[in-house]
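Objective 1b: paired records.
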Amino acid sequence: MTHTEAERQFYLGMAGVSLWYAREHLPGAAPSPEFVFPEEVSTPVPEPGVQPVAREFPRPVAAEVLPTGPGGAHGKPDLQALMVGGKESKVPEPKPVSETESRALPEVAGGSSEDSAGVTDVVARAEAIPLNLKAWGGNRFCLACGLADDASNRLQETLALNIMKSIGEVAPSALGPLRWPVFNNVKVPGNSSSDLASVMSDVFTAFKGRTLILLHSGDESSTGKIEQLLLDAGLDQGLVYRHSLAELSSSPELKRALWSQLRPLAAG
C-alpha cells in the first residue's frame, strides 16, 4: 500500500497507467480526495551571481519494491506481487515441446469436428444465391423474372404482364417479389442454399405443374441454380432466357428474340 501520491504515481506509471489531472476545477465534478505529497527538499536561496540548483523530490527506489520478472531488472513489474505486499512471485518456466508434440500441433490447431462443421456451415451461407425474383402464374405457364433495383418496378411488371398475355395468360396471379438472402450477415442462420430451397418450395406451391419461363440476367451458374430451385419446387422445365425485364424494355431486338422462343410454347 502506498503512502504518498508520488509513490502512487510511480507504481501506476510502471504498470503503464497514464494519469491526468485537471488544471482547474471542472463544473459539476465531484470533489477530489486530498493527496499526500512528500515535503519538498528545502534549498537555500542562491546568492546573486550564483547558478541556482534544481530542486529534487524523493522517489521510491524500484529495486527495493518491484520484483524481478522473467525479463530481468528491465522487465515489466509483476502486478500480482505488488498486490500481495511486494513479495516476488515465481513464474513457471515454459515446458519444452518435444518433437512428437510439435508434429501433433497442426492437428490440434485444426480444431474439432464440430469446429470444422461450423466453418462448413458458414461457407454454405456465404454461397447463398442473391435473388430478387417475382413470378406470375396462369393456367399453363409460370413466368419468373429477376427484377432490377435500378429500374422502375411498374415498368418491369407491365412488361411481364404483356409477355403473359402474348402466350395466352389473360389474368395471371402475381407472387413476390422474393428477396434473398434475408440477412446481410452470412453468419446468421437461415441464409444457406438449403434454406432458400425450402423457401422456394413453400412459395411456389401454388404454381406446381406450370411450365417455367425464367428471365434472369445473371451468369450461367447462378441462373442455372435458380432454374434448378424452381424445378425442384414443382415447376415443369420450359424456357430460360438470360436477359432481365429491364434489358427487354429498352431493346426491341431482345423482345423479338424472346418472342421467337415463346411462340412454340404458346402454340403447343
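Objective 1b, second protein:
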Amino acid sequence: MADEPAEVWERFAVALAEMARDLLAQDSAQDTLDRIVEHATVLINGCDHAGILTVRRGEVHALAATSDLVRRADRIQQDLREGPCFDAVTDRQQVYTIQDLREPHARWPRFAPELNKLGMGSAMGFLLFTEDDDLGALNVYSRQPGTFDEAAQRAGWILASHAAVAFSAARTHQQLGHALETRHEIGEAMGILMERHGLTEDTAFKVLKKASQDRNIKLREIARLICETGEKPG
C-alpha cells in the first residue's frame, strides 16, 4: 500500500480503527469471528467472500463464513487436504495466494479447479496467530481472477494480525466467564448437599468429584444436575 495515494491509506486507516472498536464491542468469541469475516469483505479490495477455519489433527473446522460458498470451499479443502488456508494452518506460513483459479496450479492441482467450479477466480489464505497461540486461517475469495495485488495482500495481512489479537482476547474473556459460571454452579451444588444432606464442605465436594468420575461427566454438569433436582447423586 506504500504506492497507494494518501487518501487510500487514510480511508484504510479509518476503516481499520472502526474494525478494532467493533471487534472489542462484541459479546462473544463467535460474534468476534463473524465480524472479522464481514470486515474482510470491506477492507480487502476485491474480496467477495471470507471465512475462518482451523485444522486440528487433519480435520478442518469452519468457524465463520460470509456465505455458503465459503463453507463449501472449506469442505473441499477438508476432502482434498489441500488449499491455501489448509496450508496456512498446517505449514505456519503467513500468506498463500492463488491469483488465477482458471489456470493449472502446481501446489494445489485438485483444489484450484474445484474452487473455480464454485465461481471463484482467486483466493488468499492468512495465518491467524498471536505470539503464544496459533488460531487458524482467514480465507479470502474473489469472483474475479488476478484480483489480489500486493496492496490487497498487505491489507489482508494487517487485518489478520489485528483479528487474531481480537479473537484471542475474546476467547480469553469467554473462557474466564465460563470458569466463573462453573465455579458458581459448583458452589451452589455444594451448598445444596451441605444443607439438605448434612454434608461437610469437603465431603460435598468429594461427592461431586466422585459422581463426575463414575459417570464420566464434567463436574459442571453434575453440579447443574444437583442444582436442578436437589438430589444427591448416587
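The longest strand covers residues 134-142. Residues 50 and 66 are 6 Å apart (CA to CA).
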